[in-house]
Amino acid sequence: MALLNIGILTFTMLFLLSILLISIAKTDSFMQSWRFFTAGCGRTTVTNTMLHLLINIFSSVMLASSNFFMQVLNAPTRSEVDAAHAQGRWVDIGVPSWRNAFILSRFKRLACLSLLLTSVPIHMIFNSSLFKIDKRMGDFHATIATEAFADGGSYFLPGVSMITSELYREGNNNDTGWKRTFEDDFGDTSLLPSFQDLATNNFSKQTANMSEAATQVSNWDKLGLTDCQGLFGQSTCTGLNNYRNLVIVLKGSGWKRSELWNLSASGGEVWQPIVPRDESNNLWFSSQCNMRGTLSQNGYASCSTNCDIFFQWSKPEGDSRTFLKLSAWFPAHHNESNWNETLYSSVKNDFMLGFNSGDFELDHCRAEPRDNMCSIALAKPLLLVVVVSILVKISTCIVVMLVLGNEEPLVTLGDAVASFISIEPRPKFVSGLMTHNIVQDRERDGTIYEPLGPRKWFRRQHHRSPTVSTGAWVKAYCLFIPGFIVLLFIVVGQFNIDIS
């Protein structure tokens, strides 16, 4: 039986070692993960589950083989039983026992410790050596434009909204509400081109993003407004499961700057090289956005996006049309000190809002289909730890066989009965019926070596309940009840999560 268990451990180690060597040959670096399977995310999930099931089977077989040797090491020999009885102590036979660990030899204790420690990587690391790679990230590019944008119509960055990082100016009468909206709901404002970037054509990344969207948007999936807001909006934001970038399409054929902005002569002159006054511009605004999941203080999961301004739509009562609300896109009219006077100066003396606001009617959305390809990879350092652990485990088992090969441990109760029948106890120890209670009583009186004489038999009624001691029941329920409570909280929390 011992040779069989060593053979199982050796076969498993050689199998895992061959996989490790193949993975090293397939990659340039030992630290680099080896992607050995790539397919659709649904198929990858199933394959990943099956591979982890196979890992658990291998782990169970290895731990069972290791447990065989630990049971043998934890079982006392006849000489150890006699020595314990001579001291008025008893040992456990047939079950793993901490009591035995303090009675057995130092070699057995060290061997048991070695087998125990080498089982930890198999428990905790082996499963982690295989993992799924999902390339679906939380960032996406959102654009608001007209239908002509997808048909090759002209556009000028940053769009006819002319929103740059210099739009808002710090002042004594700050519109703090709009400033917070600008920082939280306009996407990653740190990536917005500044006016200086626009004036010097230093915005190649933004140009590349817009050029890609303009040339490919006609091939993207068309979404209704309800579906679009449901997928990418603040409440659910599940759009990134199947889609990447987004274009919100407005009705109309584009705008001229002169139709929307009431700039002064100096302001118009500053913007003329960037957003021409009388040329059609089919781009309203574009920004890099991010979706993120959060966990509230009460334990509920939610999802949010930093581009909420894109989805602030209104639908007048009794009207089937949907409009993009522009009231939150710019600082309040009365806080003229918030406007950058150099870039957005108005012809009016009181520097009122230079933009002629009016809501834009929405038509539909275009979403870029995501390449739902996922991979399964192998972490070579973790697998190496598992292989080394199995090798140490095999070495320990071989040493145990060589050192304790002639000993006959009492692993089961049958072994103990056979030993006590074949080898009688020493006469000075017992000479009659010996029970555990007699050993304890005599140990207290100091007369443990006194021969046993005839005694009267008392018939007592025994119940099944005392078979397991009260202490064992208490320990079991101390572990069971907290675990059940934690499991209950987890189950309730899962039912309360409204996120996909």
What does this structure look like?
- This protein is of the alpha+beta class and 500 residues long.
- It folds into 2 domains: 2-133 and 376-423, no CATH class; 139-371, no CATH class.
- The chain is 43% helix and 14% strand.
- The strands form 2 sheets. Strands 3, 4, 5, 6, 7, 8, 9 and 10 form an 8-stranded mixed beta sheet that branches. It has a 3-stranded antiparallel beta sheet with strand order 1-11-2.
- The longest helix has 34 residues, at 41-74.
- The radius of gyration is 38 Å and the shape is elongated.
- The chain starts with a helix and ends with a helix.
- The model is unreliable at 349-353 (pLDDT under 50).
- Keywords: Membrane, Transmembrane, Transmembrane helix.
Q: Number of DSSP strands? A: 11
Distance separating the two termini: 51 Å
Provide mean pLDDT, rounded: 80
**Radius of gyration using CA atoms only:** 38 Å
Task: Supply the helix-strand structural class.
Answer: alpha+beta
Strand content: 5-15%
Number of helices: 17
Domain count: 2
Shape: elongated
Low-confidence stretches: 349-353
Helix/strand order: HEHHHHEEHHHHEHEHHEEEEHEEHHHH
Sheet with most strands:
8 strands, mixed
Keywords: Membrane, Transmembrane, Transmembrane helix
InterPro entries: DUF6536
Protein name: DUF6536 domain-containing protein
Pfam families: DUF6536
